[in-house]
UniProtKB/TrEMBL annotation:
<dbReference type="Pfam" id="PF00496">
    <property type="entry name" value="SBP_bac_5"/>
</dbReference>
<keyword id="KW-0813">Transport</keyword>
<keyword id="KW-0732">Signal</keyword>
<dbReference type="InterPro" id="IPR039424">
    <property type="entry name" value="SBP_5"/>
</dbReference>
<protein>
    <submittedName>
        <fullName>Peptide/nickel transport system substrate-binding protein</fullName>
    </submittedName>
</protein>
<feature type="signal peptide">
    <location>
        <begin position="1"/>
        <end position="19"/>
    </location>
</feature>
<dbReference type="InterPro" id="IPR023765">
    <property type="entry name" value="SBP_5_CS"/>
</dbReference>
<comment type="similarity">
    <text>Belongs to the bacterial solute-binding protein 5 family.</text>
</comment>
<dbReference type="InterPro" id="IPR030678">
    <property type="entry name" value="Peptide/Ni-bd"/>
</dbReference>
<feature type="domain" description="Solute-binding protein family 5">
    <location>
        <begin position="68"/>
        <end position="421"/>
    </location>
</feature>
<dbReference type="InterPro" id="IPR000914">
    <property type="entry name" value="SBP_5_dom"/>
</dbReference>
């Protein structure tokens, strides 16, 4: 029997009134992905771990991402013309290496990600910034080329976490990811790409110290192995569980199973930039009609997912329901014939093991559905690091690749995934992996960026979503639920809609 969706608020999980609480000496968590590095401007898979190391200027005030609250900046204001933002910083904040956080740190951080040499896939978040001026140690001004309403949202995201000039400048861009220095409650003690990575308390932290002495993360691609580790007490928390792994955990009196919606949408993205057949909208729409997503969610995911009704998952800002593409293989064949492929075609698909729920089973189901309409798919499954290498080396010849996005804010989600962009250098995964481009989507984004009313911006985003949905640059598969197992006695953890987690307030009864 499924667990009800649970809001992870510490107070609700503390057990009976008056139960004794203590700081957990160590909280151990296992997930499906290997960690790459801890440079917020570059990293992909280390986000949740690195969130404990860094802080941002501002933060989101709620899980709906509808408000912004202070963090390293105590307050801010915007000029009448909307071009200049002034931030007033907290005083007395230090990085974990003892160096001071100040206005120069803000200037260095933003100019580093703006520098093309950094090759950040998140550079577009700050592309509208024309200059950063230090007024004094605790006041900094950010000027944009045009009024840019999403700036605060972007500054609240981990990719714009504040860096230390002195610490970061000691290393090359690639080296710094192994030597992270931030203002957050924890710092990196040890890192092992295939073993245990350990965080310990930051002695220079300006706020209330984290409750655990240590936080450790272990990558375990196999769900069954994570389940065993949780049951035997080798780890305290296991993320990315599968539906079939839940019954024994639900029956275990020592384990709490958490089921929570997420903003993650998993899809096969078409490499439109390589030309036919994926540059033909009719082909892409045919593939949407060819796949029975309701059956995938019901039978493979055990109901722990959402059938896509638009390019956004529920919970993302400006989510709009366009009714979905029904399962209709006959219509798919008609569209393929109209597009000039009456006999179908052959293609390649890459998918990563362990990163998305039931990735292999879903990929094989998609392979079967497409075969029924004449599209023969050669499926290549690999561990995440290998998968990224294969994709970046352009292994796929007119193929598609499985990716998920959990970006919770509408502007950045549209801009990063479907905004017109150029392919970056070969060493970095491109932000817009399909190279989809639609001038009307770009126009709507530009108009929204200059509107300081979130309500009005959301209307423009919804229009852009509809265009993307009809253009189908991706074969959308499912919105992914979060399934997490936690050993009883632990509380104070948080799991967010975008599948990030925080453990710095964990206590143990």
């Amino acid at each position: 029997m499924k667990k009800a969706f649970v809001l992870l608020i510490a107070a609700a999980l503390m057990g009976s009134a008056g139960a004794a609480k203590s700081e957990a000496e160590e909280v151990r968590i296992a997930g499906g992905s290997h960690l790459d590095a801890f440079d917020p401007q570059l990293e992909v898979t280390s986000l949740s771990v690195a969130m404990h190391i860094y802080d941002t200027l501002v933060d989101f005030g709620d899980e709906n991402y509808g408000s912004i609250v202070p963090s390293l900046a105590e307050r801010w204001d915007n000029s009448e013309d909307g071009l200049t933002w002034t931030f007033y910083l907290k005083k007395g904040v230090k990085f974990s290496d003892g160096s001071p956080f100040n206005a120069d740190s803000v200037k260095f951080t933003l100019e580093r990600i703006l520098d093309p040499k950094t090759a950040s896939p998140n550079r577009a978040k700050v592309a509208e910034i024309s200059k950063v001026d230090v007024v004094d140690d605790y006041i900094v001004k950010i000027t944009t080329r045009k009024p840019y309403a999403p700036l605060l949202e972007n500054l609240a995201t981990y990719h714009l976490a504040m860096l230390s000039r002195s610490a970061t400048s000691k290393y090359s861009v690639l080296e710094y990811g192994m030597k992270p220095v931030g203002t957050g409650p924890y710092m990196l003690e040890s890192y092992d790409i295939s073993g245990e990575t350990v965080l310990v308390r930051n002695p220079n932290y300006y706020g209330t110290p984290g409750t655990p002495d240590r936080i450790s993360y272990t990558p375990v691609p196999e769900v069954s192995a994570r389940v065993i580790m949780l049951q035997t007490g080798e780890v305290d928390i296991a993320t990315g569980l599968s539906p079939e792994s839940l019954p024994p955990l639900e029956a275990d009196p020592n384990i709490e199973v958490i089921s929570k919606p997420s903003t993650m949408m998993v899809s096969f993205t078409h490499q439109m930039w390589k030309g036919a057949p994926y540059d033909n909208k009719l082909v892409r729409q045919a593939m949407m009609y060819a796949v029975d997503r309701e059956a995938i969610v019901k039978t493979i995911l055990g109901g722990y997912g959402v059938v896509p009704k638009g390019p956004f998952s529920p919970g993302v800002q400006a989510f709009a329901d366009f009714g979905g593409y029904e399962y209709n293989p006959e219509k798919a064949k008609e569209l393929l014939a109209e597009a000039g492929y009456p006999n179908g075609f052959s293609t390649i698909a890459l998918a990563p093991e362990g990163r998305y729920m039931k990735a292999r089973e879903v990929s094989e189901a998609v392979q079967g559905y497409l075969a029924q309409v004449g599209i023969n798919v050669e499926l290549k499954m690999s561990e995440w690091a290998t998968y990224v290498t294969e994709f970046q080396s352009t292994l796929i010849d007119r193929g598609m690749h499985m990716l998920g996005s959990s970006i919770p804010t509408a502007h950045w989600r549209i801009q990063r995934i479907w905004g017109t962009q150029k392919m970056p250098d070969k060493d970095h995964l491109p932000p817009n992996t399909s190279q989809y481009s639609n001038p009307e989507v770009d126009r709507l984004l530009s108009e929204a960026s200059q509107n300081f009313s979130l309500e009005e911006r959301n209307k423009l985003y919804a229009q852009a979503e509809k265009i993307v949905w009809e253009d189908a640059p991706e074969l959308w598969l499912f919105g992914q639920s979060q399934l997490v197992g936690v050993r009883k006695g632990f509380s104070g953890y948080k799991f967010y809609g975008n599948q990030d987690w925080r453990l710095d307030r964990v206590v143990k009864q």
